[in-house]
Structures are given as C-alpha cells and as structure tokens.
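User: I need a structural model of Carbohydrate ABC transporter permease from Georgenia alba for a docking pre-check later this week. Nothing fancy, just the predicted structure tokens so I can convert them on my end. Input:
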Amino acid sequence: MTATAVRRSARTSPSPRKPRPTYRWSSRAFVLPALAVVVVLLYLPFVWTGYLSLTEYDGLGDPEWVGLAKYAEMFTDEGFLAAVGNTLLWVVGTLVLPVGLGLLIAVLAHDLEGSFWYRLPFLLPYAISGIAVGVIWTFILQTDGALTQALRFLHLPGTELRWLLDAPLNTIVMILAATWQGAGVNALLFGIGLQSIPKEPLEAARLDGASGFTLFRTMTWPMLAPLTTVVVGLSIVGSLKTFDIVWGMTKGGPGTSSETLALSMYKASFVDHDYGLGAAIAVFLTVVTVAGSVLYLRRQLAPAREL
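Assistant: Understood. Predicted structure tokens for Carbohydrate ABC transporter permease:
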C-alpha cells in the first residue's frame, strides 16, 4: 500500500467516538429537587402576582381582568409617590449610616487587642427582631417620650420636635433605629474582611511612609472592595424592602407620610383588600430591586472581568 493510499484511508476511516460522560446527568439530577422548590416557591408565585396585578380582585370570587388599570392607579396615587420617595431615602440613609458606621467601627477596632469584644455591643441589637426594635425606639421617640423628657431635664433644645409625627423627620429617625440594629453586623463583616487582608502590602506601604487615612485610602480600602460590594448590595436590597421597623414605629403614618413600598403593598393587599393594586406594587418593587441589584453588581464586577 502506497503512502497516498494510507493517508486516504486514514482520512476516510471514522475516528473512534469518545464515550459520553454519564456523570453530568447524574450530578444534575441532584439539583432537580432544589430547582423544583425554587420554581414552586418563587417563580410560580411571582407569575401569579403578575397576573393579579392585571385584575380587580378583593379575595372573593374570581379576579376580573382590568389590564394596566392598577398600574395607572398606582402611579397616580400620591401615597404611592410618597412611598417611593421614602424608600429612596431609606436606600441613601442605609448606605451612609449602617454601612459607613460599620466600616468605621471595624477599622477602629481592627488593631486593638480583643477587637471582637469592642464590636460585640454593636452586634447585639442585630439579634433583636425589627418589630422589637420598633417598640423600643417608639418608647424613646414618641410624643413626650424618653428622649423628649431627657432633653427637657437637661435643658437642651429639641423638646418641641415631634419625632414620629412630622415628615421626613419620622423617616430619618427610623433610619437611625435601623442603624442601631444593623451597624454591628456590618462591622463584623468588615472586620472579617480586614483580617483576610495580607499584612505584607500594608507593611511595605508603611515603610514607604503611608499611614492613617492615606494608608486606608490607598491600600486597605481597595483590598476591601470585594467585601464592600457584598455588604452594599445586601444593604440596597434590604432597604428597598424595609417593612418591620416602619410598621412597628409608625405603621406608615401619620397618613402615608412614612410609608415605604413594602408597607404600601401590605396595606393595599391586607388592609384595603385590593389585591390587584397590592400585586402591582409588589411587581414594581420586585422589578426595581432586581434591576438595581443587577446594575450595581455589573458596575462593581466589571473591573474584575476586565483584568
């Protein structure tokens, strides 16, 4: 057989097939129960909620199809617009106060011996439920409450302020209550991040003359960026669905002056029994939360993908 015939025979002869791995399908089978739970408990309820948002439904009888009427009603309602503004205020306040204060506590306690014990008092309020936090701070901030009496006893200004009755003051003091509850866990997370930073780059920066805020800005903060992305992302999602503290302190009042989107959704559904409007607010809140989270994470993770 000539060399040409050998080459032709090699080209025409079928190459042996590689056995298809079966372990992939067997491993995927273990994921199916968890996937089924997610579909049943998350996706199907969202689809049903989306359908209800296009109907008039009070919980009795069959839903009546009204199209986008509930969305039109939602966007023209002054209470809903106030809830959007309050929710945005919660987002900004949550990022500035609980996250910022948690970072400050973690940085100040990092180099101290027994730093965990310095962070522990700030962490304890996180073990209290949001409703309990609301009850505690209502006792402090209510009309002629503990704070007003303390200011009057010390002859300090502020006794005339109605902490929970005037907007936007009521939303601001509730953000302070949420800060009291959430700053400690942020300090714990940032403390873990600081402990994971290698010491060699910091020591090299100190030898080059960096110290204090300069060392933090140029070395520590960039190396905390991955953890900061997680903490800020969780804070954004948590602030967008704020409910328990507001319900425990003001129930959204007076009127709708301190309502958030989550509270508006609850009142429309379970107080006014307008399930179509409540579903429309729920869909809007879900879309805003998912869109905000995706845009933030894509913006933060884009530099990492470019490396």
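Before docking, keep this in mind: The longest strand covers residues 55-56.
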